[in-house]
Amino acid sequence: MKDVTQDTILVHAGRDPRNNHGIINPPVYHCSTVLFPTLDALEEGDRNMLSSVHYGRMGTPTTFAFEEAAAELEGGYKSVNTGSGLTAIAIALSAFTKAGDHVLITDSVYSPTRRFARETLAPYGVEVEYYDPCIGAGISALLRPNTSVVFLESPGSLTFEVQDVPAIAAAAKKAGATVMIDNTWATPLFFRPFDHGVDVSIHAATKYMVGHADAMLGVVTCRDEATWTAVKKAATRFGICGGPDDLYLGLRGLRTLAVRMRQHQESALALADWLATRPEVTRVLHPARPDFPGHALWKRDFTGSSGLFSIVIDQVPRKALAAMLDGMELFGMGYSWGGFESLILPTRPAAVRSATRWTDPGQVLRLHAGLESADDLIRDLDAGFRRMAAAL
After folding, report:
1. What is the pLDDT of residues 87-105, one digit of tens each?
2. Which fold has domain 258-390?
3. 219 pLDDT higher than 90
4. What's the count of helices (H) and strands (E) in the chain, helices before strands?
5. I need a labelling partner for 29 at 20 to 30 A (CA). Which of 14, 101, 117, 338 fits?
6. Which tens digit of pLDDT belongs to each residue from 274-294?
7. From-to residues of CATH 3.90.1150.10 in the chain
8. What per-residue confidence (pLDDT) applies to 346?
């Protein structure tokens, strides 16, 4: 579709009612074996297995509908689906690395990405180096002739550093490295990686794309055909594919992504502004707030913010923290985010850093603002702080 907004793309991409008996949503294809009527058809399918209905895990009409919608929304060439966000990260990194390569990964990266690098890439002979997320064009000093990938995540997990993506991408491309970004926080609605020099955009579609905390899904979108072919071949080698029902839920979730993200953004900012007035809170880590160190970069490159941010509170005894968190009525404690429900999670950024140091002595709490009333969420947090104070 040309000359339409992303809101409209979300509603129409990846579906074709005219070729599906007039049915609006693509059906769920549960499939392993695909039958070919002739030897010619079988051999033609073998030649085009990466992009045709050839075998269940290679893709079905349900698969291709989700991938088409994701690629069109992101403005990329094509997408590859996976069974989770971590699998999407692993497949993307595997597609562009080999023994003897050097890879640069932001120090603020999602912890499972770091674990994959340490426990899989490194034992297979890939040297992994972490860099300061605020390095910008200074990353040139770290690039080597064998640097194959520069991996970004902006804002970063837990502490939300905003990276200078265009500067990092320009330096990396000049050195011949493939530039990847985990774009889950912003979604394609609020950040357009390919407009800033990125080659591969990765999403834990489990989160905002699915949006309902009921499916595991990942997606990798590529700038061009060569990049997509490399990722698709990597997924094929490992037998990676999303389940048909999860793909359907991902496609359904995309239809309401725009309206949900607007609400997540509005509620998160309301919570962040209120939390900034609390005496218990020493810092609010939200890129869209003017007092955040990376706000200027966020304002330059992003068109919005999501529901995920962190706060730092005064260090308190564990019993006081438990009194606050255990009694929350609307904020659940659990991993993941991006669903309709609000979440709160204590985190320890210092434990997952190597190139930089997290020295703030306070307790970091990561919050996800769901789709509940912001006023109700504020009342829940206020009651939590009162329980914490009573337990001191």
Report:
1. 999 999 999 999 999 999 9
2. Aspartate Aminotransferase, domain 1 (3.90.1150)
3. yes
4. 13, 11
5. 338
6. 999 999 999 999 999 999 999
7. 258-390
8. 97
Q: Give yes or no: 299 in active site.
A: no
25: pLDDT strictly greater than 90:
no
Q: Is 57 a catalytic residue?
A: yes
Q: By percentage, how much of the chain surpasses pLDDT 70?
A: 98
Known catalytic residue at 207: yes
CB 109 within 8 A of CB 157: yes
Average pLDDT for 320-348:
97
The CATH fold assigned to 6-255 is: Aspartate Aminotransferase; domain 2 (3.40.640)
110 given a catalytic annotation? yes
Give the active site residue among 107, 164, 182, 199.
182
Q: Report the C-alpha dihedral over residues 158, 105, 131, 356, rounded to 10 degrees.
A: 30
Residue range(s) of every CATH 3.40.640.10 domain in the chain: 6-255
Given the residues 110, 130, 131, 208, select the one marked as catalytic: 110
Compute and round to an integer the Cα radius of gyration of the chain: 22
Given the residues 15, 192, 207, 260, select the one marked as catalytic: 207
